[in-house]
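Severity: low
Component: inverse-folding endpoint
Summary: output formatting inconsistent between runs
Steps to reproduce: submit the following structure tokens with default settings.
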């Protein structure tokens, strides 16, 4: 995987994006062809206009005016301008379609990537930065493709066509006029490289700003409760200033492109007027030829100026594209080829840890040698001080992280030989922090069992005593709720999360202080419901309030990632060890 990531990282982003628009490659080639044809028409029109001028001049000199020929040339000139300018609408439509299909594909890839990213990446990267890459950077890329790419192609074609026609019209004037152009290209290329770094810095700064804003508003109650508005405001101002500074610097550097291009173009145009005027007086250049050259001079300076501006926009788009591909190239969870398969309905629920070794960071091991056995139907509580490794134990059992040594077995099968999806289908989890998604109450309860009937959802709600308050809401089970905006209290949200697990009816339960956010009376009712549900099921309870797990079959006391004591509540109290000390301390404070 690492080698593949390295190979992808070295792959040019433009080459990769051409691969991603494969389905629209024909449309892209057709659009490029239209651009070429339209610019050829625009480029040839001044020469034809010069021929018409020379024809009129000869007609005045000879007194012989051919009206038919004049009308014919004017009609052709009109058609050239109609084709040249009328193609813009079709080109714009095609490029919008191409860009949106690409963004659709990249967003789909990003969504799939989110599901395959390692927990370590998600735990260590700000959600706002990830969000910025999927939204802001995608929009920047879309705008670049829709407007900048066709504009640059057209400008290059027009510039190339005009140069050829200038040489065909008068090679000497063409050489004199174009002599200053290489200097302009060299300078703009140098500035382009410099501005690209600043555009990348701007995108990174914007990602940091989005992360800070998301963090502040997601945890706005905590911010206000601790009076941290000033700190958050200062952080926002700092990051906002960084975005502003990077934007100003990138635009300042890129802003030199246009003046340099205009300066080179104006010098060339002055030389063209002086030399061309002299040749016209000497009779070595016709009036129509001089007129065509003046128009061509403007047509060269215009693409050069536009190209300078387009290069700025293109660098911004490339920076956004690089950030998108950086995200898509992040390390994923290893692909699995499981040798075994478990059938959830046939699981007995025996869990065994054998000499497990693990650390979130390779050089810092948290668990040195953890061994334990939970027999089918056993309720096992995991307790200990903060940072003891309680949640880590569950993370390893669910294979959110893979162990560094030892083995973990489920019903005698090494969980490393099972697919993660297949393994996790046997578990039901209720975490201390509730998770409610944007949808109805019925959809939230039925999340773990998509094919659940309305009656099953209601029955699960009744089991955990949340049916009564749901029916008091204006739309009952069809009431729309979300994590950030809801008429439900924290305890009511927790009840819905517990009802979700009850409905899923898993073979193994994991409860991380599941009743921590409900009142004492509700906690008693939920505890009774959970005790009934835990019958004949293996259950792991992460407990902070020790009096809630006195009836557990076994209690594991952990410190610094290692198991220090194992036994029933009475056995551990009799030992008068670490558990007894913590339990008595907790009892004294109640």
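Observed output (run 2 of 3):
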């Amino acid at each position: 995987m690492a080698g593949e990531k390295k190979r992808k990282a070295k792959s040019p982003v433009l080459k990769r994006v051409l691969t991603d628009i494969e389905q629209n490659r024909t449309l892209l080639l057709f659009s490029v062809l239209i651009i070429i044809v339209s610019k050829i028409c625009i480029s040839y029109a001044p020469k034809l206009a010069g021929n018409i001028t020379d024809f009129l001049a000869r007609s005045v000199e000879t007194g012989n005016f051919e009206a038919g020929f004049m009308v014919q040339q004017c009609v052709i000139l009109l058609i050239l301008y109609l084709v040249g300018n009328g193609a813009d609408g079709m080109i714009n439509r095609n490029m919008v379609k191409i860009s949106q299909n690409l963004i659709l594909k990249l967003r789909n890839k990003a969504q799939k990537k989110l599901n395959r990213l390692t927990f370590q990446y998600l735990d260590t990267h700000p959600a706002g930065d990830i969000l910025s890459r999927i939204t802001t950077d995608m929009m920047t890329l879309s705008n670049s493709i829709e407007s900048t790419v066709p504009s640059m192609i057209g400008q290059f074609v027009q510039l190339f066509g005009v140069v050829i026609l200038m040489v065909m019209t008068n090679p000497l004037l063409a050489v004199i006029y174009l002599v200053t152009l290489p200097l302009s290209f060299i300078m703009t290329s140098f500035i382009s490289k410099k501005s690209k770094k600043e555009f990348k810095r701007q995108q990174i700064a914007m990602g940091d700003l989005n992360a800070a804003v998301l963090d502040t508003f997601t945890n706005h109650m905590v911010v206000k409760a601790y009076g941290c508005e000033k700190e958050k405001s200062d952080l926002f101002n700092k990051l906002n200033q960084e975005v502003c500074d990077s934007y100003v610097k990138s635009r300042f550097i890129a802003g030199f492109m246009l003046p340099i291009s205009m300066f080179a173009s104006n010098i060339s145009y002055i030389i063209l007027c002086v030399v061309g005027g002299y040749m016209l007086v000497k009779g070595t250049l016709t009036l129509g030829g001089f007129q065509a050259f003046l128009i061509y001079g403007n047509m060269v300076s215009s693409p050069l100026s536009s190209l300078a501006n387009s290069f700025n926009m293109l660098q911004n788009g490339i920076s956004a594209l690089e950030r998108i591909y950086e995200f898509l190239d992040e390390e994923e969870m290893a692909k699995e080829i499981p040798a075994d398969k478990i059938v959830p309905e046939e699981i007995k629920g025996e869990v065994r840890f054998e000499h497990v070794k693990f650390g979130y960071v390779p050089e810092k091991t948290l668990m040195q040698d953890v061994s334990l056995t939970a027999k089918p139907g056993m309720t096992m509580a995991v307790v200990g001080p903060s940072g003891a490794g309680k949640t880590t134990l569950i993370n390893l059992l669910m294979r959110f992280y893979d162990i560094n040594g030892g083995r973990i077995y489920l019903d005698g099968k090494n969980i490393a030989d099972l697919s993660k999806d297949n393994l996790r289908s046997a578990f039901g989890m209720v975490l201390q922090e509730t998770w409610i998604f944007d949808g109805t109450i019925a959809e939230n309860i039925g999340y773990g069992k998509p094919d659940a009937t309305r009656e099953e959802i209601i029955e699960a709600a009744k089991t955990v005593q949340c049916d009564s308050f749901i029916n008091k809401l204006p739309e009952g089970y069809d009431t729309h709720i979300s994590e950030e905006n809801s008429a439900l209290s924290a305890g009511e949200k927790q009840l819905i999360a517990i009802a979700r697990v009850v409905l899923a009816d898993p073979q193994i339960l994991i409860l991380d202080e599941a009743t921590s956010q409900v009142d004492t009376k509700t906690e008693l009712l939920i505890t009774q419901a959970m005790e009934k549900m835990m019958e004949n099921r293996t259950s792991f309870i992460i407990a902070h309030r020790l009096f809630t797990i006195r009836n557990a079959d076994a209690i594991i006391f952990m410190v610094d990632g290692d198991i220090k004591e194992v036994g029933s509540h009475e056995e551990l109290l009799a030992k008068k060890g670490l558990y007894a000390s913590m339990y008595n301390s907790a009892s004294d404070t109640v």
